[in-house]
């Protein structure tokens, strides 16, 4: 898998390069500031980009802006965004387009190597990978007398795991229930939220997140 990295912290940047190359991936380019990112992504055409939200010179949202711009010029470009903290506005903006292949993780997650690599591969394959803390923030923000309040505690657990990008088998293992039960709970979630009764792939995650962000 060909990867472009944009991160201004030299230690983390080099750590990502080492981690990815050790896992058998090819790092085709690195950037340390916002203005470098878009030209690099368009020139190298990676399979996936790993970008820090905040990059020089402004240390605001340069990485996110570059990711959004790159996806406009190259629709479907898989992007995994890293952030130091949960920033709801950035997460919502990244997910707002409803496109495939997006991820938003806290930087602490990089230290959990297996989880990070699994998330990166999921995004590169067109799926979605959201940090559990980000999902919790979005779900709590979305509550307030709406259809989410009609979900049972179990359905809420299933929805949270769906939003993290987990498949039915993983949800079943995590909650210690059968896949058939997971399928049923997912059907109930979509019915209560007024969403299409589909539980396949990343489309269900993006549909749920679109609802939570509406």
TrEMBL record:
Occurrences of domain Response regulatory (ranges): 2-122
UniProt key word Transcription: yes
The keyword Transcription regulation belongs to this UniProt entry's keyword annotation: yes
Keywords: DNA-binding, Phosphoprotein, Transcription, Transcription regulation
SMART domains xref list: HTH_LUXR, REC
Residue intervals of the HTH luxR-type domain: 144-214
Location of 4-aspartylphosphate modifications: 52
Listed name of the protein: Response regulator transcription factor
Lineage: Bacteria, Bacillati, Actinomycetota, Actinomycetes, Kitasatosporales
């Amino acid at each position: 898998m060909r990867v472009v990295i944009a991160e201004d912290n030299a230690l983390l940047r080099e750590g990502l390069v080492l981690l990815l190359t050790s896992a058998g991936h090819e790092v085709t380019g690195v950037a340390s500031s916002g203005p470098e990112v878009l030209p690099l992504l368009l020139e190298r055409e990676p399979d996936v980009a790993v970008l820090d939200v905040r990059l020089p010179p402004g240390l605001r949202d340069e990485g996110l802006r570059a990711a959004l711009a790159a996806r406009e010029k190259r629709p479907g470009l898989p992007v995994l965004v890293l952030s130091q903290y949960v920033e709801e506005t950035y997460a919502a903006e990244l997910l707002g387009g409803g496109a495939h292949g997006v991820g938003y993780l806290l930087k602490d997650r990089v230290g959990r190597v297996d989880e990070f690599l699994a998330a990166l591969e999921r995004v590169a394959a067109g799926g979605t990978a959201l940090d559990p803390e980000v999902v919790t923030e979005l779900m709590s923000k979305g509550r307030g007398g709406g259809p989410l309040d009609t979900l049972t505690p179990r359905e809420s657990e299933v929805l949270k795991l769906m939003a993290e990008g987990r498949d039915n088998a993983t949800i079943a293992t995590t909650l210690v229930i059968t896949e058939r039960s997971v399928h049923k709970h997912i059907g109930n979630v979509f019915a209560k939220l007024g969403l299409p009764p589909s539980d396949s792939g990343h489309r269900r995650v993006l549909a749920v997140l679109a609802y939570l962000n509406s």
